[in-house]
Amino acid sequence: MPISLRSRWAFLPLVLALGAISLYFLRLSINREAQPLPEGTHNAPDHDAPKVPVYKDIHREIAPPLPEYFPLAAKAQSPSDLPPVPSWNKPPDPHVPEQTRLYIGFTRFWPLLQQVVVSYITAGWPPEDIYVVENTGTMDANKRGLLTIQNPFYLDYHRLTKILGVNIITTPSLQTFAQLQNLYLSEAINNNLTYYFWSHMDVAVHSHEDREPFKSLYMRAVDVIRETQSPDYLRNDEGVQQKWGIQFFAYDWLSMVNVETFASLGGWDTMVGYYGTDCDMYSRLSMNNVAQPVQDAGMIYDVTTSLEDLEMLYRRRPATPKNKEEEETAVESAEKRDDDDDDTSDLKEATSSHPPTQEDTLNSTHYHSLATTLTAIQQAKRTDPERNSWQKRQNGGVGEPYYYDPDG
What we know:
12 helices; two-stranded antiparallel sheet; single chain
C-alpha cells in the first residue's frame, strides 16, 4: 500500500532523535580522548617540562684485546731482523728511474694497515716509496707512543718507520675521504710528481706467481707507468690522443693518478660526502672525455681481517738439512751460541718459536694456500651485511690523548 506524503512526515521526529543521539555519543568520545592522562602515567605529554637531549647508550661490550699478528716484527730491533723479501719480488737495485710513490690512508684498525704495508713490501714495492697517511685526528699521539693498541686510532709508529722502513705523514685533523684525496694530490704537486699511486688500507696484495713470464706486482705497476709515457698512448687512427686521468687496478683498491688531469678538474669535491665523492670524481672524468683504463698488476683482495701471522707473506718454510752431516753441524753451532750467551732463555725461546727457515719456491703449494686464504677472507667480507664491520672491532682508548668516540 503506497505511503502518502502526509504519512512520511511522521518519520521526521524519529530521524531527528537518532541524529541527536549520534552527535551526543560522538562528542562524548572526543572529550574522553582529550582528557589528561592520570598522574604518574609515563606517556603523558608535559608541555611545561624543560626539553632535555636524548643521550645514546654508552654502555657497550668492550672488544677483546687484539692479538699480535706479526710476532717476529714485535721482537725485531731493526729491518735486518725480518726475513728478506722473496727473491723473485725484490725491487731493482738501483731504483727504477720512474717515481713510484704510493699513498695509503689510515684512520682506524692497525692490523689491516700493518697487513697492507707488509703485503706491498713483500710484493716488491720499495718501502721508501710507501707513505702511510695517518688520518686519525690524534695529532702526534701515535708518534709519541701515547695510545694503546685497543684504541681504534692506534698505529705502531716505530714498527712502520724503523722496522718496516716506510714513511708517515700525519694530518692535523680528521679528514674526509675527499679531503684526504686532495692531500695526496697536493703532496704530489709539491713534490713535482706527474703521477702517483694510492691504495685502500683494507686490502692485501701479492704478485701473480702463476703467470709467465713472471713479474712482481711492483714491476707490473712500473710497466703501466712506461706504457702511459709512450708518445702514442691512447692515440687513435686519426692521430688524436685522449687524456687519461686514473689507472684502475681492481677498481680503485690500487690506483695510479695523473696529477695534471686531476688538478685541471679542480681535484676532489669536498662538498660531496662518503661514497658519492668518488662517483662524482670519476663521473667528471668521463664527462670530460678523460680515459680511465683498467690494469692488472697482481692479486688485490678486499679484506676485513689480518692473516694470523704476516710472516707467511715473506714466503719462508722450515729449513730442511740436505744431509746428516749438515744437520749435526747446525746443532753444534746452536749449542755453541748457547754456551757463549750468559742468559740463553730468550735465545732458546726464539729458536723454538722461530726455527730456521729457507725461502719457498715460486708458484708453490704455499703460494696457492695463501691465495686461497685471502680469497676466503674476501668472500666473507662480500657476504657480510655490514661489509665495513672491521671498523668497529676496537672501542678502547677512553681518556687517552685526543680521544673521541668513533661512533660519533
